[in-house]
Specification:
6 helices, single chain, alpha+beta, rod-shaped, two-stranded antiparallel ribbon, six-stranded mixed sheet
């Protein structure tokens, strides 16, 4: 039996099963691609819903090679139609007036079915619609799951970003607080200065006491030895005064210049001490400012690092979950 005769015989069979004449389309061009135009032998169309509900291929005979080739044809049609939910059948003659129907299963094998088991039009149409709804539901569930995952990742990223900012600001505030506590500590230089003044005061007090004792000793008139000692000291002082007066009278300008030089040296020492104190004050101020800036920079770096982690960690978790789900 020729394929054309087999097609006519099969169409008559479908009409007896309640299929409308207009739903049986022969050699319909599904789509033209670079590989050519693909035309199934017979397409069953649901006229009301404008959906393909069946594909049929006719062969003169069937063997393993033909089954493999026909399976490739069906999958090409599926890819052009964008779905594998369409029932597919392979029909071949077993006599001049009879044929055998093979249905394509989900495991990509052909299973013989009897004419009585071949679905009627309403059943085939309902099956197609049911499969489409199931597929649509699966797509919706998958899309919803992806949206939930995206929402979860966005929430995690927002929480981690907020946490990193809080940590950064807290680190900056703590650093500034510690720095301020350092400012409030009394300077050790003041203590050293006060200790030095106290030591000098005590030293002067001791010298004053010593001088008072010597004065008291000198003031006693009954002590002849002390009187001789004092007289000798007075004589020596008079000699030294005479030498100084002689030097001043001989060269008064030199004496005045020496005194002036000493005064200038004292002034230079004071100016140098003041410059050192001013320089040290500036250095301390710059050091304090740099420490505050370092504290703020540390907080900013912690915030940036936390933000980067908040973006990287959710992506890594999502990638690992996807790898675990994929077979």
């Amino acid at each position: 039996m020729e394929e054309k005769q087999l097609e006519i015989l099969f169409k008559q069979f479908l009409l007896t099963k309640g299929y409308p004449q207009g739903s049986l389309l022969s050699q319909v061009a599904l789509r033209t691609t670079g590989d050519g135009t693909f035309r199934p032998d017979l397409v069953i169309l649901d006229i009301d819903n404008k959906e393909y509900i069946g594909l049929v291929e006719f062969k003169n005979k069937v063997d393993k090679r033909i089954e493999v080739n026909t399976l490739g044809q069906f999958y090409k049609y599926f890819s052009l139609l964008g779905t594998q939910a369409i029932p597919a059948y392979l029909v071949f003659p077993i006599s001049e007036e009879d044929f055998q129907i093979l249905a394509l299963n989900k495991d990509n094998t052909f299973e013989p079915i009897s004419k009585e088991d071949f679905p009627i039009f309403e059943t085939l149409s309902a099956k197609r619609l049911t499969e489409e709804k199931i597929k649509q539901r699966e797509v919706e569930e998958k899309t919803l799951a992806e949206l939930e995952q995206k929402k979860k990742r966005t929430k995690q990223s927002a929480y981690l970003t907020l946490l990193s900012l809080i940590l950064g600001i807290s680190a900056s505030v703590i650093a500034v607080f510690i720095q301020q506590k350092g400012f409030d500590k009394p300077s050790s230089q003041t203590i050293i200065c006060c200790d030095s003044l106290e030591f000098k005061f005590q030293n002067l007090e001791q010298k004053i006491n010593t001088l008072e004792k010597q004065f008291n000793v000198v003031s006693k008139p009954n002590n002849k030895t002390d009187t001789v000692y004092v007289n000798s000291n007075v004589t020596l002082l008079e000699k030294r005064i005479k030498i100084i007066e002689l030097g001043i009278s001989e060269n008064p300008e030199k004496t005045l210049s020496i005194l002036q030089i000493r005064q200038e040296i004292e002034l230079l020492k004071k100016a140098d001490d003041y410059a050192k104190e001013l320089t040290q004050t500036k250095i301390d101020a710059i050091k304090d400012e740099m420490e505050v800036q370092n504290a703020w920079m540390l907080g900013v770096l912690i915030a940036i690092f936390g933000t980067i982690l908040s973006l990287v960690i959710p992506n890594l978790i999502t990638k690992r979950n996807v790898q675990n789900i994929e077979p």
